[in-house]
Amino acid sequence: MNSSLIQLLVLAGIAVFLILKLRAVLGTREGFEKPPLPADPTHPQPKLVSPVPEDGVDLDIIDHAPAGSPTALALAAMKQAEPGFSVGEFLHGARGAYEMILMAFERGDIDAVRPFLGDEVEASFTQAINARESAGQTVEANFLGLREMHLADAEFDATTRTAEITLRYTGELTSLVRNKAGEIIEGSATEVKRQRESWTFARRMGVQDPNWQLVGTSD
Description:
Elements: H1 3-26, H2 59-62, H3 70-81, H4 87-106, H5 119-134, E1 138-157, E2 162-178, E3 184-204, E4 213-218
Antiparallel strand pairs: 1-2, 2-3, 3-4
Helix pairs in contact: 1-4
């Protein structure tokens, strides 16, 4: 078995692993999803009203957002639309999603994570990767860990049942860029870079499709 075939098998194995891991983290897309019905202007839309548990406190929400805040009310509305939704479980999955999506972008191969990217984010990632390739640049990156992650904001559209959750990440990694000649033109293999950014994930609640997608990024 020659080295090229071995390398191909290894890369295929890595791609399969990433797809299975991301499905466990953000869900999978199955079947055809019907578009939401247009809103009926003759009927007012429901307001974001927080359901009150038996003990009066939903720790799954107030552990991550102040009680009564717009963020807490939006999270409560998500639970009303989909009772099985758990904020804690979502955050647990989002930790792993950050590393996998970030490193796929850094390495210039987003095929495995493409189903978990919104159209605008996918286009932005693809444009940046193509620009690097056109310039003959390659990136070498190593993810060291997620130093901090917290829920920054949440919104729920009662008309479309679309949920958006914004997370603030602080990750640590080493990253360097080489030119066509293999010379380092940016970054370092040993200098730790602390990267702070906000990612927004979106999903329609209460539908069979459990897939959350990354729909926005900002510093």
